[in-house]
Structure formats: structure tokens, C-alpha cells
Write a structure and sequence with these properties.
The protein has helices spanning 4-9, 42-47, 49-58, 79-88, 104-114, 131-150, 172-179, 191-196, 201-207, 237-241, 244-247, 263-276, and strands at 24-26, 29-31, 35-37, 63-66, 92-98, 118-121, 154-158, 166-167, 170-171, 185-190, 214-217, 219-221, 226-228, 251-254. The protein contains twelve helices and 14 strands. The chain has one domain: Divalent-metal-dependent TIM barrel enzymes (TIM Barrel). Helix content is 38%, strand content 19%. The protein starts with a helix and ends with a helix. α5 links the parallel β5 and β6 (118-121). The strands form four sheets. An eight-stranded parallel β-barrel has the order 3-4-5-6-7-10-11-14. A two-stranded antiparallel ribbon has the order 1-2. Strands 8-9 form a two-stranded antiparallel ribbon.
Length: 279
């Protein structure tokens, strides 16, 4: 099955009952304002963007992160339509996954129109698992971050597992953290991919406190190395939320790429799991 990582490198909607979940807090860390990365419901968004957003709101989702699609970053809606639709449902389009490409200026302008706060580069703009390439890309990120800041947007980068490979004894993700300017570049940590790579997100929170403003909350089957419903994989979700302050986390987005049944049924299970963590 194609994962989102494979999709990025290579590049019917279920009715659900209303299950509004309140904001809640687990000991040591906030678990409120739950968000979703819309790649989780990519087929549903392409089929019926407004209807799918309505169903996500019914599940208790509050924050939205978009992703690229064959219909653009807003699934056939204009940036303003996306903003207005979200607002009417009690949602906020907070972030978007994008690429640094020849449409970068348009991408930034669309983000301004949508009212979103973050633009996140979803994968490496140039391939090459070398320290040299990561230093080159980090310079691109610093420049992109400066451009975004002028528009009151925050820029960041989203990892997969490949960033934790080594070149000349250096973990490439560490190179990126060292070479990017925290003033202009934040990190959206995909917790699931970090664990799959054999690392502990808490070590990064400790070494680089405050750098990880956004999370992808993703549980992972460590044998099959693909995403699964919360509580079925190798991510200690409660432990992550006990360390939100050190991370600097402002928003988290649930992302699941493979499902036991359907995307929306998996989201029901994930939201129910988070509710049980209420302290």
C-alpha cells in the first residue's frame, strides 16, 4: 500500500454520527484542540471537501492541516472558500503541506488568503542523503522562512524516516537542525516516523527545546512500518503529551495513511483513544 512518504517521493465518504469531544488535559501535557492532516482523508476530501470537513468537525476535530492534491492545496476550493468553510464548522485551517518549487510565491499568497499560520515543506526539495545536500537545503529553508515571516506566516519542515540516516557519521536530521535558523524554520515532527527510524522524540525535545511547534501524531506498526490506529503501534502517546512543553508544541495533527477499515472509522477510534487519556 502506498504511504504518504511514497506519494510525496513519487510525485466514498462514510457517514459518522456526531461525537463532539470536549477539550481535555492529560497529566503533564495538553491534549486539546485536536487537529488532522487531511492526507488522512485524502480520497474523501477529493470526493466531497465540504462534506468531509463537516464530518471531521462532528468527530471533534478543531485544527486542519491541508496537503497537496490533484485539485490543489485546498481540494478544489479557493483558499478563501477553505477558510470560510472551516470557520462555519468551528474549524481553523492552521497549516498546509507544500513543496518548495516554481509555484512557491503563489503558495505563499494562497496561504495568506486562507488565513493559515504555517507552511510546512512536506519532504526534501532535492534528493541526496548527504551532509552537503542537507546543508544546501537548510539554506533554502532559511530563505523560505524569511520570506514567510514577512507575510506573517511561519515556515517549517516535516520529517519522514529517511532524515535519520547517517552520512559520514552524522545523522542528517541533526545537520538540518544545526544549519536552520530557529527564527525562520521550525520543525513539524512526525512522531511515528521518528520511532520507526529507531529514535526517541523525547531526546530531540531535550536537545532542541521549543523547536517542534507542530506534531504529526501517528502511531506506527513497527513490524510492518506503516501507520495504524492509536494504541496499536509503538508510539507511547501519553508520554509524548507529557512532554509538550519541552517540545514547544502548539498544534498536533493526527495523520494515518493506512486503515483497518476506512479513514473516518479509524479517526473515530483515534479520537476515542485520546478521550481516554483524559487526566
Amino acid at each position: 500500500m502506498q504511504t504518504r512518504r511514497d506519494f510525496l517521493i513519487g510525485s466514498g465518504t462514510l457517514a459518522v454520527g456526531s461525537m463532539i469531544l470536549p477539550s481535555f488535559v492529560a497529566s503533564g501535557g495538553k491534549i486539546n484542540n485536536p487537529g488532522i492532516q487531511l492526507y488522512t482523508v485524502r480520497a474523501e476530501m477529493l470526493a466531497d471537501a465540504k462534506g468531509t470537513l463537516k464530518q471531521l468537525a462532528a468527530l471533534g476535530i478543531k485544527q486542519i492541516e491541508s496537503a497537496g492534491s490533484v485539485k490543489g492545496h485546498y481540494y478544489g476550493l479557493t483558499p478563501k472558500e477553505m477558510k470560510d468553510t472551516c470557520k462555519s464548522l468551528g474549524l481553523t485551517i492552521r497549516s498546509g503541506h507544500v513543496q518548495l518549487d516554481d509555484k512557491w510565491e503563489q503558495t505563499m499568497n494562497e496561504a495568506v488568503e486562507s488565513g493559515q499560520e504555517y507552511l510546512i515543506c512536506s519532504s526534501m526539495p532535492t534528493h541526496g542523503q548527504t551532509v552537503e545536500n542537507y546543508k544546501k537545503v537548510s539554506k533554502q529553508f532559511n530563505k523560505a522562512g524569511e520570506q514567510c515571516k514577512k507575510l506573517n506566516i511561519k515556515f517549517g519542515y516535516h520529517n519522514h524516516d529517511v532524515e535519520f540516516e547517517k552520512d559520514n557519521g552524522k545523522i542528517l536530521y541533526d545537520v538540518m537542525l544545526e544549519e536552520t535558523d530557529p527564527e525562520f524554520v521550525c520543525m513539524e515532527m512526525d512522531l511515528g516516523w521518528v520511532v520507526v527510524a529507531g529514535f526517541n522524540p523525547l531526546d530531540y525535545f531535550s536537545k532542541h527545546p521549543g523547536r517542534f511547534k507542530l506534531w504529526h501524531l501517528k502511531d506506527m506498526d513497527l513490524v510492518k512500518k506503516h501507520s495504524t490506529e492509536f494504541g496499536k503501534g509503538g508510539l507511547n502517546i501519553k508520554q509524548m503529551f507529557d512532554n509538550t512543553k519541552q517540545s514547544g508544541m502548539e498544534y498536533f495533527f493526527i495523520e494515518q495513511e493506512e486503515y483497518t477499515s476506512t479513514a473516518l472509522e479509524s479517526m473515530q477510534q483515534n479520537m476515542a483513544y485520546l478521550k481516554k487519556l483524559k487526566g
